[in-house]
Design a protein that fits this description.
Length: 376
């Protein structure tokens, strides 16, 4: 077993061990409340996958977490801790909504790429400013991105309260977009092939999210810019000696983070609510941090981690509805335990697992060494 396969096995075992412990402790808490943990688990899984409507909501949440998970991962590869995906998604979503309002008479095939471009530009700028402050002025990205989250919130409240809100309307939100600029819902897409499924918020943005996973994977590991970003994140001093501009790559990484986070607006505003509204991104950006860390900042891991949190969100809603002793707060506790063990305490059991893998590797090497001797 080569070194790369060994490390992959260690990371996989660490992740599954931590998730098992998180769910085990959750089961103990549920049992202490007088409920059956196995029934709770079955209810959770049924609420996430048991029928087409549940699956639709699960994948709908997964789509958002893919975007914010990728938004954190690119920054992390550059040695940055981007905690500003909430604000970046907010501003990117604002750009998506403005395009849909201003170009509502245009066909979707023209509006969609313009909305994507606007989301990249607005969200990218919102990420690039903290990147500039970090790269050129040394400001810590955690502080600046948190502050930019609040600034984005104030901007949205002001615009929706005084500019975009129609006359006579009480709620701070824009008018509905024209139906022609809506991203097709998944049940509509399936109807094109003669398949009937229940209507859910899941829409075509899910396929766009999968495309983003592939593009980020190619960018990070197979392009010069991706190599430079990873080099800066690994050792910025070595990057300088290699002729790589640290500040430029920090700004680039944060701009990409903002652009990816802004795609949440495609799913939420253009694909689901069909209007600009307050707090459409609430919690999605922060959950993306956990998604990326659990997925080890790799697109494949992010996809699986985003699906896990989609299951917890949708299945948790079903669980709190079906089991009397379990409310939404306990579901949040389960999510918190997953984040705690798979994120903050990810190295808690790593030494023991590494020792176990070394034993397996040594046994394998011994068998390979003995085998030729026996044959002779």
């Amino acid at each position: 077993m080569n070194e790369r396969r060994t490390e992959t096995l260690v990371v996989t075992l660490v992740t599954f061990t931590n998730l098992f412990i998180a769910f085990f402790i959750s089961g103990v808490v549920i049992w202490a409340l007088g409920e059956d943990p196995w029934f709770a688990l079955k209810t959770l899984l049924y609420g996430a996958f048991g029928y087409d409507e549940a699956l639709g909501y699960t994948l709908y949440y997964t789509t958002n977490f893919i975007f914010t998970g990728l938004a954190f991962a690119i920054g992390f590869h550059c040695g940055l801790f981007n905690i500003g995906a909430e604000g970046q998604a907010y501003i990117g979503g604002l750009a998506v909504g403005l395009i849909c309002l201003w170009l509502e008479n245009w066909p979707l095939w023209l509006v969609f790429p313009l909305a994507v471009s606007a989301s990249i530009i607005f969200g990218g700028i919102w990420g690039a400013i903290p990147g500039y402050l970090k790269g050129k002025r040394g400001s810590h990205e955690v502080v600046t991105t948190i502050m930019f989250n609040f600034i984005a919130s104030v901007i949205m409240v002001d615009l929706l309260s005084h500019v975009l809100r129609p006359d006579g309307q009480m709620s701070p939100e824009s008018r509905d977009f024209a139906e022609r600029v809506w991203v097709p819902q998944m049940h509509e897409i399936f109807e094109w092939f003669g398949i009937q499924i229940t209507q859910t918020p899941l829409n075509g943005t899910f396929f766009f999210a999968l495309l983003c996973l592939i593009l980020v994977w190619r960018f990070i590991w197979y392009t010069r810019w991706g190599y430079e970003i990873r080099t800066v994140g690994t050792n910025d001093t070595a990057a300088v000696y290699a002729g790589i501009s640290v500040s430029r790559n920090i700004i680039l990484a944060m701009a990409l983070c903002g652009g990816l986070a802004g795609f949440v607006g495609i799913n939420e505003i253009m694909g689901s609510s069909h209007r600009i509204m307050l707090n459409f991104q609430a919690g999605i950006g922060f959950t993306g941090i956990a998604v990326s860390l659990i997925g080890r900042n790799h697109p494949l891991g992010i996809l699986l981690a985003a699906l896990l949190f989609g299951i917890l969100y949708q299945g948790g809603a079903e669980l709190s509805f079906e089991v009397q002793a379990i409310d939404r707060h306990l579901v949040v506790l389960i999510q918190g335990l997953v984040i705690l063990f798979a994120g903050a305490l990810e190295h808690l059991f790593r030494p023991q697992i590494e020792q176990f893998v070394r034993i397996i590797t040594n046994v394998e090497k011994t068998e390979q060494a003995v085998s030729p001797t026996v044959n002779n």
